[in-house]
Amino acid sequence: MPSYKCNKCGGKMENLKDSLVCKECKNSYKKSNFLSFSKAEKYYSEIPREKMLALLAEIKGGEHWRKVISRYFSSSYPLLHKVISDESRADFSFLISLDKTSKVLDIGSGWGTAAVPLARRCSEVVSLEGTPERLEFIKLRCGQEGIKNVELLCADILDHPLADNQFDLVIMNGVLEWIGESRTDGKHEELQRTALKNAFNLCKKGGTLYVGIENRQDLRYLQGGIEDHTGLTGVSFLEREEADAYSKDTLNKPFRAYTHSKDEYGQMLKEAGFEKIEFLYPSPSYKLPSYIMPFEKEPIEYFLNEMETPEFMYGTDWDKSITPLSWQKMLHARKLLAKAGVLPEFADSFSIIAKK
User: With contact defined as beta carbons under 8 Å apart, do 175 and 142 qualify?
Assistant: First the structure.
């Protein structure tokens, strides 16, 4: 079991049968299906809560989670079907030294697509997730898979109860950009920096933070493609105040799904305390990577010429709004950028490995 600290006084928590109790101030948290440290119940998912509750009921009724997910999403929402069921989403972990003694924290664990395969390789995985229904799904998934070393925690990385310096790997896969959407009590970039600093503190000395995230300067956006989080065109290149006004005028809500450039991410990670930071090229995207490549000139040029073909890109479930001809033009542009040594500035997304 992970080590906890009281998020009121910072004291050590005693693990009792039905609760966690602070040894200093006696603050306590009851155990049920999972530990909940959340101040307010939240629901975030790609699907409405009613649909989530319906599929949970079917799994609780005895049907295997894979069959339920396939029936709900394989035709109507194929990308989500893959995000939930395809364990290649966790393949970045093979780039990180882990073994049977390793402890992992998966922040924003979602549907458990990274937590479950990592639990097979490591001693313990903590799934930190703010949506109770998602934790219910992970619990059912683990139960059907025979996984017993996943600790379920309903909490917020900005106000969490975990003790520092205990994890070999901390994961923020498709999470950092949403920090400002889940918490509106501060400026988005400040909240993102706090989340990264908290992740740094949670890592052991020599531990690793993995971040999977989009690039603000994605080449697709320059060519008029829609921004992944808002569906708006051109918004990521605007100054933040202009982007906010554009979002309010178009979507009737502020723009808070901030992504950044490679240099900006690097600076934020350094400010959080990380020393060695490596940016890698996931293809077709960090969301469902078939390949993760270094940006060095020779290997990336070989990859772009021999493997990342229009047929490969269009054969994935990634962005079917782009035609094969458009992919051909885009991939040609990527080859030119790689040859000029500036592809990292315009990659669509990053797999980032940062060491403490």
Answer: no
Q: Is 61 helix (H, G, I), strand (E, B) or coil?
A: coil
Residue pair 189/225 in contact by the 8 Å Cβ criterion: no
For the chain, what are the domain ranges? 1-31
Residue among 207, 217, 138, 114 at smallest CA distance from 167: 207
Residue recorded with tokens 């290649």: 88
Q: How far is CA 209 from CA 25, 53, 272, 274, 306, in A?
A: 32, 32, 11, 9, 31
What are the CA-CA distances from residue 101 to residues 95, 125, 210 (Å)?
17, 11, 18
Which candidate, 148, 91, 55, 68, places its Cα nearest to that of 288? 91
Mean pLDDT of 155-164: 91
- Whole-angstrom Cα Rg for the chain: 21
Strands 291-294 and 349-355: unpaired
Instruction: Retrieve residue 240's tokens.
Output: 């933040």
Instruction: Measure the CA dihedral 25/8/206/298, to 10°.
Output: 160
Write down the residue that tokens 């908290």 correspond to: 198
d(CA 242, CA 148): 48
pLDDT in tens, 325-350: 777 888 889 999 999 999 999 999 99
Alpha-carbon gap, residue 307 to 302, rounded angstroms: 8
Q: What is the pTM of this model?
A: 0.93
The sheet with strand 28-30 has its strands ordered as: 13-15, 19-22, 28-30
Mean pLDDT, range 294-313, rounded to an integer: 84
User: Of 286, 243, 288, 280, whose CA–CA distance to 87 is shortest?
Assistant: 288
CB 139, CB 34: distance < 8 Å: yes
Tell me how long the chain is.
356
Work out the angle between the directed axes of helices 132-145 and 49-60 (0-180°, nearest 10): 20
Task: Report the largest interatomic distance among the alpha carbons of the chain, rounded to a whole angstrom.
Answer: 65
- Residue 332 CA to residue 309 CA, distance in Å, equals 10
Residue 78 and residue 317 in contact, taking contact as beta carbons nearer than 8 Å: yes
**φ, ψ for residue 15 (rounded to 5)?**
-90, 100
